[in-house]
Design brief:
InterPro entries: Beta_helix, PbH1, Pectin_lyas_fold, Pectin_lyase_fold/virulence, RHGA/B-epi-like_pectate_lyase, SCF-Subunits/Alg-Epimerases
Keywords: Repeat
Domain Rhamnogalacturonase A/B/Epimerase-like pectate lyase: 45-90
Protein name: Pectate lyase superfamily protein domain-containing protein
Domain Right handed beta helix: 97-265
CATH topology: Pectate Lyase C-like
Strand content: 35-45%
Structural class: mainly beta
Number of helices: 6
Length: 498
């Protein structure tokens, strides 16, 4: 009887052990099924087989890179991260003043080659080893194509970043850089990011970038079902891209350094002028929550982009074109961050959605609640009355062909800025072909002064009067906005990959 009890106990232990192994194997198989990955199980490359330990202490960078190199270039293999915390050296430059001061470094982090599929357990974490660098990257997709990243978490060093060369830039002791990225894309195409959590980055959760050597745009990118939270500079920065889908994500709590938006579309000052463009983008069914600037910011007004000239001496202008923003929830985003940060209200742009310097933009069926301006604004200067409105749920300025319709934004305004010449050096174009209709809002605020008033047509917008009754604004549109050609054109142009 005595030995029988021991055998029973040993049997129970053995059963538990083998069941644990079986659960782990089934978990990997289930993940592949979840993401529709059709790869033979024998071709699933586990990073632990290459020496990665995932104990949250040891540097796993080199061993993980070996696994990525093994899979890269093969569509028939998958690199798999089981549960664990994998410490990543995100910048392999030496810790010298020169390297630390480098503002954008696109050559560091884990290099992900073309034709790579990364599959991570929900509890697999790629953790940036705390560093003092201005610029770092966890997953680096430079000139990569056909890359898919599924599941897992990417965690930055926001809470324990090292302030080593703090006063090298901007004179701000808490600055120390802003380009610490979770996922970086440079000249990459056919990329899928699905169900990934990216948080606490020193800069952006995701950055679509182009460096001085770039020859092609980022293209055919899908970012979906992901949670992007508590990053310092941006949830997602889009500095160069075409054919981009951002769908069903939660992007929240961006705060720390300008602009601090959920998504910022801002073509950068690239050497290759043709890459100063973001076009053919769908942003839909996302939640933008409590970001320290707009939930979505379109900003084609960058000084360097506008003033710089190409090799033939022609004035250059950023291109933001064909953008669809629909079916998103905006809740608690700041509506005058730039006002507070810059210390001068006349330079403020405000709104949970901001569209500045863009063309062919369709904004419809969004819900905007709880705008949160951080400070008061001076409304005494009539020229800036429209863009000094703390409750501008949506702001449009210097843009062409923008349709705003069927949005729920009670007690919030739509503001349209008129022509403005900053410091008398360059006259930005006036807003033209702005159509505002069928929105539930407080009022439409138009700029009152300037050389030209904005070209705005309104129809069937509603606001509540003092006694609570609903009144209609002036109706001037004969066609139904839902059948507007702009919306159809955006969908038609993108549907080939959407």
């Amino acid at each position: 009887m005595k030995y029988t009890k021991y055998f029973v106990l040993l049997g129970m232990i053995a059963t538990f052990f083998f069941m644990s192994i079986k659960v782990e194997a089934v978990s990997s198989k289930d993940l592949m099924k979840k993401y529709n990955i059709e790869v033979e199980e024998k071709n699933v490359i586990d990073v632990s087989d290459f020496g990665a330990v995932g104990n949250g202490k040891d540097d796993d960078t080199k061993n993980i890179q070996k696994a990525l190199d093994e899979v890269g270039g093969s569509k028939e293999k998958v690199v798999y991260f089981p549960k664990g915390t994998y410490m990543i050296n995100t910048n392999d430059s030496e810790s010298t003043k020169e390297n630390v001061q480098r503002f954008v470094n696109t050559s560091v982090g884990l290099k992900v080659k073309s034709n790579t599929t990364i599959l991570m357990d929900d509890d697999a974490i790629l953790k940036a080893i705390p560093n003092e660098f201005y610029s770092y990257t966890v997953l680096n997709l430079k000139e990569s194509s056909n890359v898919s990243i599924y599941g897992g978490q990417i965690l930055g060093d926001r809470e324990d970043h090292i302030y080593k060369y703090a006063k090298l830039r901007r004179g701000n002791p808490e600055y120390n850089g802003e380009t610490g990225w979770g996922i970086l894309m440079v000249s990459s195409s056919n990329i899928i990011i699905d169900n990934v959590t990216i948080s606490d980055m020193w800069g952006d959760g995701i950055d679509l970038f182009a460096d001085k050597e770039s020859k092609t745009s980022n293209s055919n990118i899908k970012i979906k079902n992901s949670h992007i939270s508590n990053n310092r500079r941006q949830g997602i920065s889009i500095e160069n891209a075409e054919n981009l889908l951002i769908e069903n994500n939660v992007i929240e709590k961006t705060k720390g350094t300008d602009p601090s938006a959920g998504i910022n579309i801002e073509p950068a000052d690239f050497k290759n002028h043709s890459l100063r463009a973001v076009k053919d983008v769908i942003i839909r069914k996302n939640k933008f929550l409590n970001n320290d600037d707009a939930g979505v910011l379109l900003y084609g007004m960058g000084e360097k982009v506008f003033y710089d000239k190409d090799d033939d001496g022609n004035q250059q202008k950023a291109q933001i074109d064909n953008i669809l923003i629909s079916e998103n929830d905006f809740d608690g985003n700041n509506t005058n961050h730039q006002n507070v940060q810059d210390g001068a209200w006349v330079g403020a742009y405000n709104g949970q959605i901001m569209i500045v310097g863009a063309s062919n933009v369709d904004v419809h069926n969004n819900k905007l609640t709880n705008p949160k301006p951080l400070g008061s604004m001076d409304n005494t200067n009539a020229q800036f009355k429209a863009n000094s409105n703390p409750y501008a749920g949506i702001l449009v300025g210097y843009s062409d062909s923008v349709n705003i319709w069927d949005n729920q934004m009670k007690n919030q305004n739509i503001s349209v800025i008129n022509q403005w010449s900053p410091e008398g050096t360059f006259a930005y174009s006036n807003s033209t072909n702005i159509v505002i209709g069928n929105n539930d809002l407080k009022e439409v605020v138009l700029a009152e002064e300037g050389k030209n008033k904005p070209d705005v047509t309104q129809d069937k917008n509603f606001k509540k009067s003092v006694d609570g009754e609903v009144d209609s604004t002036v109706s001037k549109i004969d066609k139904e906005l839902k059948k507007d050609s702009l919306f159809e054109r955006i969908i038609t142009k993108i549907k080939s990959w959407f």
